[in-house]
């Protein structure tokens, strides 16, 4: 069964041109804060601006008294579903559907460091700390729009090598948004980079008192690293998904068979030369 899964992973990496995200079994759930507000965003993202079709994710941003958490609702749903299936004795469990963005971030409101997790199915969780910038915004006083019935103003900023345009609403005086974005006199309801590689747009806003949870997983394979290590790992992964997989298995290419669209087994040496175009969200 493990051998078959490895073949499927390789096909997904090469033909779908995305990182496969697998469900993980939740071991412990620790409440770290209580959310006062919940914002639901749709995220359309690409691994590279030249990618023809965007992937879709549903992101949840929980705003608490002490921290803000941004995570994939799709991944969280399938983790929870798989965990319940295993607890009830299932021999197999549901896997993540689609290509949600496999990043989770918890950032303290009164600190400039955030805790992040990036999951790759064929590697450990990449767990790291990274800075949260103080963004300098320029305002477009005459530009207004309406999102979810809220009147929004337009602002622009530069962050990590990209230019962003944001629409925020003073009607919700919360200086937050998705990912690391914030610092405006109102909640960010939409933000996109100039290449439209990443586009977040709010689809829901509500008051809540739900806990903000931090999860640990049964496999226990979290890998503590630096932000620079994560980027190097992702560059190596997208440069050669098959080569990365073989390396994670200990370097024995004889354990892996790569099946192409035609159903024929590919030469591993050729398969390792196949790359996925990739441009990180934070370029610098």
Overview of the structural elements:
30% of the residues are buried. The model is unreliable at 1-17 (pLDDT under 50). The chain has helices at 2-16, 73-87, 227-239, 241-248, 268-271; strands spanning 26-45, 55-64, 67-72, 103-108, 113-118, 126-131, 138-147, 150-159, 162-169, 187-193, 198-207, 211-217, 223-224, 258-259, 265-266. Helix 3 (227-239) crosses helix 4. It has a single domain (22-240), classed as Lipoprotein localisation LolA/LolB/LppX (outer membrane lipoprotein receptor (LolB), chain A). Strand 10 and strand 11 form a beta hairpin. Strands 1, 2, 3, 4, 5, 6, 7, 8, 9, 10, 11, 12 and 13 form a 13-stranded mixed beta sheet that branches. With 284 residues, it is α+β, with helices and mostly antiparallel strands.
Oligomer: single chain
CATH class: Mainly Beta
Q: Percent of residues in helical segments?
A: 10-25%
Largest sheet report: 13 strands, mixed
Q: Within the CATH hierarchy, at the fold level, what is the topology?
A: outer membrane lipoprotein receptor (LolB), chain A
Portion of residues in beta strands equals 35-45%
State the total count of DSSP E strands: 15
Q: Would you tell me the overall average pLDDT?
A: 88
Which architecture name does CATH use? Clam
How many domains, in number, for the residues? 1
What class would the helix/strand composition place it in? alpha+beta
What is the string of helix and strand elements? HEEEHEEEEEEEEEEHHEEH
Q: What gross morphology would you assign?
A: globular
């Amino acid at each position: 069964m493990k051998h078959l899964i490895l073949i499927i992973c390789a096909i997904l990496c090469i033909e779908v041109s995305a990182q496969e995200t697998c469900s993980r079994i939740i071991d412990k759930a620790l409440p770290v804060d209580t959310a006062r507000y919940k914002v639901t965003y749709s995220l359309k993202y690409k691994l590279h601006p030249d990618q023809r079709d965007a992937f879709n994710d549903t992101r949840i941003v929980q705003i608490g008294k002490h921290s803000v958490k941004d995570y994939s609702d799709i991944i969280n749903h399938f983790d929870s579903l798989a965990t319940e299936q295993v607890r009830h004795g299932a021999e197999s469990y549901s896997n993540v559907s689609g290509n949600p963005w496999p990043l989770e971030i918890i950032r303290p409101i009164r600190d400039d460091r955030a805790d992040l997790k990036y999951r790759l199915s064929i590697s450990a969780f990449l767990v790291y700390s990274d800075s949260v910038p103080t963004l300098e915004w320029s305002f477009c006083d005459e530009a207004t729009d309406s999102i979810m019935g809220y009147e929004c103003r337009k602002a622009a900023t530069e962050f990590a090598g990209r230019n962003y345009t944001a629409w925020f609403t003073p009607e919700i005086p919360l200086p937050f948004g998705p990912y690391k974005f914030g610092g405006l006199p109102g909640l960010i309801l939409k933000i996109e980079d100039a290449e439209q590689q990443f586009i977040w747009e709010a689809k829901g806003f509500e008051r809540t008192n739900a806990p903000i949870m931090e999860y640990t997983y049964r496999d226990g394979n979290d890998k503590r690293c630096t932000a620079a290590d994560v980027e190097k790992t992702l560059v190596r992964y997208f440069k050669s998904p098959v080569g990365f997989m073989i390396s994670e298995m200990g370097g024995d290419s004889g354990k892996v068979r790569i099946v192409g669209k035609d159903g024929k087994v590919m030469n591993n040496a050729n398969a390792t030369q196949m790359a996925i175009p990739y441009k990180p969200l934070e370029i610098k």
